Amino acid sequence: MPASDDPNAAALSYVSKIYNGQTPTSVRTGGNLPTGSFVAAMPDGAFITFRPAGQASRLTLDSTASVDINEATINALNGGDPLKLKFPRK
Predict the structure, then answer these.
(1) pLDDT tens digits for range 42-78
(2) What's the domain range around 52?
(3) Within-domain flag for 2
(4) What does the alpha-carbon distance between residue 37 and residue 51 come to, in Å, rounded to a whole number?
């Protein structure tokens, strides 16, 4: 994704667009999720995970937010894996 001054805001804006007018059936926070992260379960069966900058894996820069989309059609197009999008800081 393009770099921005606020990776978290850019990622959350993207998430609101991919909700595509749907309301999540559930949103999970806490537990084993990194601070500030959430997993939204969508009515169409997709799961959308948001991780703010500094809360992704050690392989992701601390200045980068991430969004994962886990949905059957997308996974099939992506070699069976969820789509992982990175939102870096300028």
Answers:
(1) 999 999 999 999 998 888 999 999 999 999 999 999 9
(2) 7-87
(3) no
(4) 5
